[in-house]
Design a protein that fits this description.
Structural class: mainly alpha
Strand content: under 5%
Number of helices: 5
Radius of gyration: 19 Å
Order of helices and strands: HEEHHHH
Number of strands: 2
Helix content: over 70%
Strand order of the largest sheet: 1-2
């Protein structure tokens, strides 16, 4: 269970963050780009898919938001205690992967509510989605930096050569 020295963990971390930044509020990034270049039908498709995904996200947060928060809090608290209090490396690795994703989820819910309340469409919607993607990328860069620093510290502090 040596997570921080395992190549598969780092590949999984990279894939998780690349997928998080590719799917913007449930909409693929290439669709946002195409709507900016082509407009017309591509822009209408983007608006339709964003509307559907925003409805899905807001109804999920309305119906079971508190339950999701409770479960996520319990899981993350358990991982943090196991990982950092009891020094279980696997729990540390999973916590460092999941904890920042909570912020991405909260940002997506906030973005969906904003899109619905302001009735964004057209170029304003595209700009908002691109700004959302930039925020997800910034969260991802910070999360990867912290994970890499903690992983290097852990590998150096608990190496076999010690």
């Amino acid at each position: 269970m040596r997570s921080f020295s395992n190549l598969w963990y780092w590949i999984g971390l990279a894939v998780a963050w690349s997928m998080a930044s590719y799917w913007v509020v449930g909409v693929p990034y290439d669709m946002i780009q195409r709507a900016g270049r082509v407009e017309g039908e591509a822009l209408e498709d983007l608006e339709t898919i964003v509307r559907v995904n925003c409805n899905r996200i807001t109804s999920l947060s309305d119906q079971s938001g508190m339950s999701l928060i409770a479960v996520a809090s319990a899981v993350l608290s358990s991982l943090a205690i196991l990982g950092f209090w009891y020094s279980v490396e696997f729990a540390q690795a999973v916590f460092l992967l999941m904890f920042p994703m909570v912020f991405v989820g909260l940002l997506s819910v906030r973005s969906a509510i904003t899109i619905q309340s302001q009735a964004l469409e057209g170029e304003a919607l595209r700009r908002f989605l691109l700004r959302h993607r930039l925020m997800v990328q910034l969260i991802g860069m910070l999360a990867i930096l912290i994970t890499a620093l903690w992983g290097m510290y852990h590998n150096l502090a608990y190496s076999v050569l010690r």
